[in-house]
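Teaching note: in complex prediction, the entire set of molecules is handled at once rather than each chain in isolation. The prompt given to students was simply: 'Predict the structure of this complex.' The entities are:
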Amino acid sequence: MLDADFFRRWMTATAASVDREAERLTALDSPIGDADHGSNLQRGFTAVAAELEKEAPQTPGAVLTLAGRQLISTVGGASGPLYGTLLRRTGKALGEASEVSEDQFAQALRAGVDAVMTLGGAAPGDKTMIDALVPAVDALGDGFTAARAAAEEGALATTPLQARKGRASYLGERSIGHQDPGATSSALLIAGLAEAHGE
Amino acid sequence: MKMLINVAETVVADALRGMAAAHPDLVIDVDKRVIVRRDAPVAGKVGLVSGGGSGHEPLHGGFVGPGMLSAACPGEVFTSPVPDQMVRAAAAVDSGAGVLFIVKNYTGDVLNFDMAAELAEDEGIQIAKVLVNDDVAVTDSLYTAGRRGTGATLFVEKIAGAAADEGQPLERVEAIGRQVNENARSFGVALSACTTPAKGSPTFDLPPGELELGIGIHGEPGRERRAMMTSGEIADVAVGAILDGMSPRNPVLVLVNGMGGTPLLELYGFNAEVQRVLAERGVAVAHTLVGNYVTSLDMAGASVTLCQVDEELLRLWNAPVKTPGLRWGM
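The expected output is the structure of the full assembly:
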C-alpha cells in the first residue's frame, strides 16, 4: 500500500532529479522550443517540495492536488497547466483514502494522463510528454521499475518524430531528430516513483 | 555572453522595479507580477488585461495606460504568466463592466488564460477573450497549434483599448478585438538568434551568412533558412507572404517591428522597402509605426504586420493613448 509519505517522497525525488537535470532539459528545449523547460520545471518542483515541507497533507490525494496547484501557480508556460493538471487530476482520482494500492494508483494516474491529453489536445506520437506518460501508465501493472523503463524508452522514441503539438510544431519537419523535452521531464517524474519506492 | 543583469533568476523582478521607478502612472506589484494603471478600476469601463512571457518589451507592460491596456501580467522570460497573476489583474481592473483577456496563440498562454478565466468567473468577474493569431509563417492545419500571435497584438490592444475607453460594452470591445485580429497578418525574419538569461547562449545557431525566415518572438527558429538577403529582398518575401493570404481593399496600418537587436537606422531603411512593395501591390497605407514594439530580447531582425482598417478601426487607432511604449494625442 502507498501512503501520503510515499507521495511526498515521490515529489521530493522528482524535485531533486529535475534540479539535477535542469540544464539538460533546457538544452533539449533550445533547438526546438525556447530554452526554458528546465528552469521552469525547476522553479515549480522546488516550490512543490518547499510547500510539502511547510504543509504535510495526510492523504495521497491531498499531496498530489497540493503539488498540482503549486505547479500551476509557479511554472507558467504550457508545462505549468499540463503538469499541474496531471497531478491534480491524479490526486482527485485517489479520493480521500489514507492509503491506496498500486492498482488504484495506476488507475488514478491514467485518469490524470487522460486529463492532460484533453487539456493539451495531444495524442501519442505527437512528440509531447504523452509519449512518455502513456507507456509508463501501461507498464505500471508490472511495477514502478517497468514504468520507469517504459517512460525512458518513450522519451527516447520521440527523437525521430515530427512535432504536431506545442511550440516545436511550429518547426514542422525541422523538429525531427530532437528528443522532446516534455517527454524527457515526464520520464524523470516516473523515475521519481521508482525512487520513492526504493527501486 | 555579457548581459546587463545581476543574476538570471531576478531579471524579471529587477526590470519591474526599474519600470515602477520610471513610470509613476503605473502601479507595479513586483512580487505578484501585475502591472496596473494607477486610476483602475475606471467606473463603467471594460478592463483590458493581457500578458505573456517577458522579453518582448515594451509588450505588454509598456502598453498599460489610458487608451490601451488596464493591466498586464509579465511571466518569466518567454514563459506565459500563471493564472494567479491574471485573476489578480482582472480583479484590480474590473469595475463591474467585465474584463477582456487578450491572449497570444501559444499553448502556454492559452492554457493559463483559460484557467484564469474560470477562476475569475468564479469570483463573479465577467470575462471575454480575444485570441491573437496573425503569424502567416505557421499555417493552420489539423496538425499544428495554428498560427502564432505576434505583432497584431499591438493593434488589438490599442484599438480594443480605445473602444473600452469610450465606454463600449464588453461584447462590443471583444468583437472589435476579434475584428482587428482577423484583419491582421504578420511575418518575421531573424538575422541572429536571441540569448535568454537562463541559458546564457544563443537559443539556436544561425551562421553569419544566413537568415531565418518565418520566426516567432520566442527565439524559436523559423520555418526556413536562406543565404543572407538585402533589405529589399526581405521586404519582398515578408510582405509577399502576408499578401498571399489577404487582399486588402481598405487601407492598412503598417507595423515595421524590430526584434530588439536591430538599430532604427536599419528598421527605417527596411520600412522604405516595405512601403515600396505595398505601393507596387497597390495597397494603400493609413499609418505606419516603426520601432521595437514586440521584441525577442536581443534578436536581430524584424517583423512586418499589416492590419486592414475601416473608418471605425482607424478612428479608434488614432484615439489618444498614454502608455510607456505608445503615446499620442494626450
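Point out the following to students. Residues 264-280 of chain B form the longest helix (17 residues). The mean pLDDT of chain B is 94.
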